[in-house]
Amino acid sequence: MYTLYHCPITCSTAVLITLEIIGVEHNVEIIDLFQNEQFSEQFLAVNPLGKVPVLKTDEHILTQGEAILIHLSQKHPEANLMPDLATTEGANALKWLNFVASTVHGHFSRVFQPERFANEHEVVKANAEEELVKLFELIEQQLQKQPFLAGSLPTLADYYLAVILGWDRMLSFDLAERFPELKDYKQRLQQTQTNSPTLLSL
To answer: What is the pTM of this model?
Structure first.
């Protein structure tokens, strides 16, 4: 049994999608970041960093979204979440997962909370958006060559990116209008995983 500590619209949604794709029994504990529930005594006892996602199993407590995703892919190989990580294909899929989870997500963090990075909030946000445009240019180029980020089949990188695409409302421009390949990509991804209601709702 898994218990996922989760806040909707955040990156923890990628873990929820993954659990649904695996089809494993799980509970979801909602942590409302907008009500500062991540700083409650009860949640800090689970994760002293006060961040989601957290995945609790009968054996241990896992934090850090990317690590949780990789762990699940190895624990449930039958779900085909990633290629064999020892292969070239697996290394490529890991590269794209890290690119999305660290680089793309990192610049969105500057859009969401520019005050955490510098006093000139508008400058921080503008610079982050400029970098995001460059990153999505690379993503679109990749998707023009193949159906998904790491090849012909979706991987964890794609499920994480699907969540990030839902953050476009925070940008000063229309992401789908600037990068039209993303709309077809998202539809392809949803068609491959109809057993994930969360993915279908994005």
So the answer is: 0.96
